[in-house]
Write a structure and sequence with these properties.
The protein has 425 residues and is mainly alpha-helical. The chain folds into three domains: 56 residues, Rubrerythrin, domain 2 (Single Sheet); 216 residues, Citrate Synthase, domain 1; 107 residues, Cytochrome P450-Terp, domain 2 (Cytochrome p450-Terp, domain 2, Orthogonal Bundle). 51% of the residues lie in helices and 6% in strands. It contains 18 helices and seven strands. A three-stranded antiparallel beta sheet has the order 5-6-7. Helix 4 crosses helix 7 and helix 9 packs antiparallel against helix 14. The radius of gyration is 23 Å and the shape is globular. The chain starts with a strand and ends in a 29-residue tail after the last helix. Bound molecules: acetyl coenzyme *A. The site of acetyl coenzyme *A has 19 residues, from helix 17.
Amino acid sequence: MAKIELDNMILECPVIVGAEKEKAIDISELRAKTGYITLDDSFSNTGSCKSAITYIDGDKGILRYRGYPIEELAAKSSFAETAFLVIYGHLPNKEEYSRFSGLLTDYEILNESFKHHYEGFPNNAPPMAMLSAMINALSCYQPEVNNNDISKFDVSAARLISQVRVLAASAYKMSVGLPTVFPYPEMSYAENFLHMMFSLPNRPYEMDQDIIDALNMFLILHIDHEQNCSTSTVRLVASSGANLYASCAAGVCALWGRLHGGANQAVVEMLNHIKNADYNVKEFIDMVKNKKNGVKLMGFGHRVYKNFDPRSKILQAAAHKLFKKAGQSDELLSIAQELADYALNDEYFIERKLYPNVDFYSGLIMQALGIPLNMFTVLFAIGRMPGWIAHWKELSENPKRRIYRPRQIYVGETLRHYEPMSMRG
Ligand code: ACO
């Protein structure tokens, strides 16, 4: 028990200890018993739920899905297998995997009228806007999803995981005026996405195993990251009883921002900017440290990791491998490396415990795969979908769930009364 002393009274609050010994004080009765609420701007120190999906130790740089280290899954698993693990809590056996991948195949084709939805967007529409709108639109074709019948969950989840890549690739094809391409049942998830992005009806995309493996790994690394901004959004929306598609569409919107998933695009834009600018890496870092015009070192820093981000280490190694193999100009990678080396030895970044996060190298991987810049965050959303789905399921299956409803401290005007316009100064 923790004791909180307030206004001459003592409130005993239960201490909650997690599976990895992390501790929390349960303050759910604080307001009812004392009239106080807790104030934690931006939720830096607020646990919003108990969850059994992902464990992070930000001080030690540990990330595990359902107990499995991210490094093992990235090296040995496939996106579809890890998606099953994250959603259902265990690695699938043969039969379970075959059913799951069968559902992904069965539900991979979009309703033909999606074509008309796409036609309504301008050519330069941001793909994240289209993706969010299209995911929400999925519920129009499966109205029973609004009943949130958990017995239908397997089909809805598979449909969403399978179709999000089709929606994304179609958005890209439409934006460049090329015909959309259907997925092939015999291809893996990652392979199929590349096929839909880059094949044409008259010219199939030539697959390279290293590229497929890199995309598979990228998607696995992005599957879940506990109560981040977009996942908290999904849970918050779901807590009102919103359906799976509506909740995940909201997750896409939250992910879009440059401080979250949008950072992968922002990093490559920053690297290109430095490449073309008339100042060097040191001068750029000085601008960041001086907080000049709000310039940040994109891809650095994290609310939870105060040591290295394990995903960034895996992606860094993969980026070097891919650039070497493709014989691509590695100018941007060199600038990234120089920035990282400089920042990691600079007092500003050391003091604030700022390290490269998942986005620092992931944009470079996307670039090596030939993914257009405005699709980088879309790729993040495809990877994150099983995580959002797992959180929607966890929340929806909790018999004690209640609608999310944070409190506030009101700092506005106190009571005043309406005056007719003629009397206002
Ligand atoms: N560049 C320069 N300074 C930074 C950076 C950065 N990337 N990140 C944090 N800081 C500074 C802050 O200005 C602050 O300085 P101060 O103490 O002088 O005021 C200090 O470090 C502490 O940072 P916070 O703002 O408290 O960090 P917070 O937890 O609120 O934000 C965030 C985390 C959003 C990730 C931040 O580090 C950031 O903006 N990074 C760049 C964007 C980015 O890479 N986002 C992707 C994150 S990973 C993901 O979402 C997938």
